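Table S2 (continued). Query chain:
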Amino acid sequence: MACALFDSGATRSFVSAMFARTCNLLTQTFAQTIVVSIPDGSTITSTHILKNCPLTPKERLMEVDLIVFDQLEFDVILGMDWLSKLCVRIDCRSKEIIFDSPARKCIVNDATAYLAFIVENYGGNKENQRIPIVEEYPEVFTDDLSGLPPDRET
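Corresponding output:
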């Protein structure tokens, strides 16, 4: 079991080198050194990655690529690459992570899934559609509006 941090401020996901060694996880070498800025303003480097590492939060098997770093306070830091890919929402009040996508649950269970959306087509004059109030009453404003009405006595 790993001590993980779900970090919406991290662009990528990371694993501590010590945790990777302890778990006998096989890492691969990058073609070039990766430099990462950390919150205190300094940078750290890595030359290794753990590809397709299996994770099982909430009893669901998922994979993540983890950049290996020597000094991390956590075993694993899951960043936005993993959080956004799996539609994860962090609920700070209840201190839990939520997998938001019901469609993804269907797909994981080998069900057929369809993505559909409806676009309402407003007919009428396209010039008038750019004016918010005019958009609501296209039958009243059928001609192009030239500007404000002339001044008149009250």
